[in-house]
Amino acid sequence: MFPVFRTLNRLLFGLTAVCGIAAMAFSAVAGDSPAYRPGPLLQAMLDGDMRGADEIVFAVRVSGRDHWYVSFGYYSCDYGPPADHAFGKYVDGVSLRGYGDGGRLCRLNLRTGQLTVLLDDPTGGVRDPQVHYDGQKVLFSYRPGGTGVYHLYEINIDGTELRQLTNGPDDDIEPAYLPDGGIVFGSSRCRRFVNCWYSRVATLYRCDADGSNVRMLSSNNDHDNTPWVLPDGRILYMRWEYVDRSQVHFHHLWTVNPDGTGQMTYYGNSFGGIAMLDAKPIPGTNKVVASFSPGHGMPEHTGHVAIVDPSVGPDDRRAERQISKGPAVWRDPYALSEQCFLVASRQGIFVMDGEGKTELVYQLPKSDGHMQCHEPRALRARPRERVMPSRVDVSQATGHLFLADIYYGRNMEGVRRGEVKKLLVLEQLPMPVHFSGGMESISLGGTFTLARVLGTVPVEEDGSAFFEVPAMRSVFFVALDENDLSLKRMQSFVTVQPGETSGCVGCHEQRTQTFPHTGAAALLANKHRRPVPITPVAGLLSPPDYPRDIQPILDRHCVECHSPDRYEGRVDLTGDRQSQWSISYYNMRRFNLVADGRNEPYGNRAPRTIGSSASRLMRLIDGSHYDVKLSDEERKTVRLWIDASAPYAGTYASLGGGIYPVHLPQPVLAARCASCHGQDKGGLTMDGHRVQVACNLDRPDKSLLVRAPLAKAAGGLGICSGVVFADPGDADYQKLVEAIRVAGGQLAAGKRFDMPGFRPNKYYIREMQRFGFLPEQLSPEAQVDYYATDEAYWRSFWWQPAQVGAE
User: Fold this and answer.
1) What is the pLDDT of residue 674?
2) CA 618, CA 565: separation in Å to the nearest integer?
3) What are 93-118's pLDDT values in tens digits?
4) How many Å apart are CA 341 and CA 337, to the nearest integer?
5) Alpha-carbon distance values, 469 to 114, 257, 799 (Å)
6) Which residue, 215, 568, 603, 734, is the most exposed by fewest CB within 10 angstroms?
7) Given phi > 0 = left and psi -120 to 50 = alpha, else beta, which region is 286?
8) Cβ burial, residue 306 (10 Å; 0-12/13-18/19+)
């Protein structure tokens, strides 16, 4: 082990720089000592699997301290322009920046210890280097000092000719050269936020070698991460998603062709608990090395170094082998062979062998403070991977999906052949801003995202389906029976490129088996079979909105019995508002009337265990419950609301708005309620959630909090033990009602998304202004049509067919 110290100060840089930042090179010998020698492990590797790779390049920067994906961009709670706040400033305990100041791009000779700094920017940021195929230039992401955005740059390996490739207001990160001459990278040009956090999202894009012809490859709602090209020409990357399942468990390895077609799981998408990051091929094998970051992932992709062998299938845990020893402290693994890796940690750059033995090869001087080493790569020429011809037709607005046999798949037990009649096609809708970390007010403990119902397509008697879907939109499917109830949900999403035809063998297909039915080849080869278009659902507003779409149905059929006055079954289904929700929506969740399976650490649920077929609400409206029978149109509305994720709000403008807690008099609760409902009784916390949901802000005297303890003779429910309040004239009763009335007045003045005059909060407005969907000059009193603004935002991502030959 040895440290290599810089002997020349970065102030020696000249002014011959792009954006005022020096791009000249200077050198230093390790420790200023001519006696420097590589350590024994490094020397053995240099004489073995690293032969011809004497030099490496790497980045130096201030590491992020938030989730693995927060290493660029700004936080939604940062209200000023992106460059206004420095790393380390906090609002409500949250850092306003996804990065710190200070970055270098370095070149190190492992045999001599000579360090060459190719670029140094004391107030900028440098990350993600990749060496060109010819070994003569380096592609990387760079944020020049004084700016808040990363873009793609190239530089020669001698530190000359720094060239900016991309530009614009959004971040471009994690680039990789493509064998066809293009570049794949991650970018926040997708203009969406993490669905459960404060930070921006980056999805996959590609561009030409000079940065022109930028085109989106992925429509993911959340991150696509660290793309790298496999020997067969496909792009390996990490995809994070949570369609119908936990938001913190599924970030695994996927592949896609360089043109964006053929998106396919590579490893791990059926089990949770590991973020598989920075995966790269291991030369001479079909295996890859990756950082397995525990749980939801650690900052800067830190984890265990692991090898994945895909030959046993994408869901077999035997495919993975951890090679690093001890705690999860490693990041940025780069393979030269299955027995030779470059890795980084907080301590510096190391070599690691196939058994996890390590040796430090470079360490920053203490004077660099919070700076750390990142992303070591071998500096040498390498062969191009296989070039894959493009299958994209940019003149088309749609692509085609083919399903060979929906009954041939995993976890389909109990679904009889011929039982599936159609597929419900839905679209996950991206989120323009997030600032709470939770799903409120989109749902209560359920979905984080809204889903649009696009319509249905038929499934043939043989189990096949062939249909059109809109290009570049995240779609997923629900298999429906003859009553249009859910049999099986996809619990993932698929995207097709313009003109792409893609398909699968079956529902959650066995990817390690061939399709056994001889008719499949004939189905696929049938040139006369044409894809069917999606049949829209007539009369449906989508995404669904509970107060707008569901509450009127309950008012017509349910409220007569389930109200504050009758309270049959101790259920209130009125649309009156609590501090955050409507009373009926809260009770839908409280009594588990909807089975949505959200936030579970596994996917591929068994048939009929999620969605409309598993929801008690559908059985309560079929006529068997006190002759309550909805019209066909009403039942359809309820069913599609459930299968479209059962949201409360149908707009992202609702996030963080309309929440007005009731500040109840604690002495009254302690004196009149705590004997039965104190914490030591296993009951409700007197100032907590369960008290808040018992308050009716629209009609305070109808609140369960005061009606339950009020004697029946006085018009109350009288369901509390003993007589707590003999009549409404009780002074304590009046204090409770008054506290609820005050909160109700605040709600009436401040509004909620389902109330006339509601205005989204400043974060929603700011992002929609930045993205161009609201005017830059908007007075504080101006009304905002947030449903229309959401729709304009979503439609901006719809693929617009181009002239044939354009890209």
Assistant:
1) 84
2) 25
3) 334 466 788 999 999 999 999 999 99
4) 7
5) 56, 19, 12
6) 568
7) alpha
8) buried
If 0-12 CB within 10 Å is exposed, 13-18 middle and 19+ buried, where does residue 39 land? middle
**What's the confidence (pLDDT) of residue 3?**
33
Cα atoms in the Cβ-side hemisphere of radius 13 Å centred on 488: 25
Model pTM score: 0.91
Q: Give residue for tokens 């000719």.
A: 161
How does 240-258 read in b/e, with b if 16+ C-beta sit within 10 Å? bbbbbbbbbbbbbbbbbbb
pLDDT of residue 683: 47
DSSP conformation class of 547: I
Q: Is pLDDT of 359 > 90? A: yes
Report the candidate in 758, 756, 587 with the shortest Cα–Cα distance to residue 656: 758
Cβ contact 162:155 at 8 Å: yes
Task: Return the structure tokens found at 672.
Answer: 């009149």
**Other C-beta atoms within 10 Å of 522: how many?**
9
236 pairs with which residues across the strands?
228, 255
740: Cα separation from own chain's centroid: 37
H helices then E strands: how many in the chain? 13, 36
User: What pLDDT is recorded for position 410?
Assistant: 81
Please provide the average confidence, as pLDDT, over all residues in the chain. 88
Using the structure block, give the residue that is written with the tokens 């920017």: 121
Burial annotation 88-124 (CB, 10 A radius, 16+ → b, else e): eeeeeebbbbbbbbbbbbbbbbbebbbbbbbbbbeeb
Which helix (H) or strand (E) segment holds residue 590: the answer is: helix 583-590
Residue 22: which pLDDT band, with cuts at 50, 70 and 90?
very low
Task: For 763-777, write each residue's pLDDT tens digit.
Answer: 999 999 999 999 999
* Per-residue pLDDT at 680: 56
pLDDT for residue 320: 95
User: Phi-psi region for residue 168, left (φ > 0), alpha (ψ -120 to 50) or beta?
Assistant: left
Separation between Cα atoms, residue 772 and residue 453, nearest integer Å: 26
Q: How far apart are CA 599 and CA 657, in angstroms?
A: 23
Whole-angstrom Cα distance, residue 732 to residue 672?
8
Share of the chain above pLDDT 90, in %: 74
Can you read off the two tokens belonging to residue 352?
């690691």
Contact in structure between 641 and 541 (CB atoms under 8 Å): no
Q: What is the mean pLDDT of residues 693-707?
A: 96
Confidence of residue 154 (pLDDT cuts 50, 70, 90): very high
Q: Could you count the other beta carbons within 10 Å of the beta carbon of residue 287?
A: 17
Residue with more model confidence, 33 or 571: 571
Q: In the predicted model, is pLDDT for residue 337 greater than 60? A: yes
Q: What is the pLDDT of residues 362-388, one digit of tens each?
A: 999 999 988 999 999 999 999 999 999
Q: For CA atoms 157, 159, 165, 170, give the dihedral sign.
A: positive
Bridge partners (DSSP) of residue 699 are: none
- For the chain, the straight-line distance linking the first and the last C-alpha, in angstroms and rounded, comes to 50
Contact 8, 25 (CB under 8 A): no
Q: Which helix H or strand E contains 640, and what residues bound it?
A: helix 632-643
Angle at 247 between CA 334 and CA 490, to 5 degrees: 95
Tell me what pLDDT residue 333 has. 98
Which residues are bridge partners to 59 per DSSP? 105, 374
Closest residue by Cα to residue 142 from 161, 157, 158, 162: 162
What is the predicted pLDDT for the residue at 675?
84
Note whether 217 and 260 are within 8 A (CB): yes
Residue 324 CB partners (closer than 8 Å, separation 6+) = 304, 305, 306, 330, 343, 352, 356, 358
Q: What is the pLDDT of residue 514?
A: 64
pLDDT of residue 511: 65
**DSSP string across 280-303:** EEPTTSS-EEEEEEETT--GGG-B
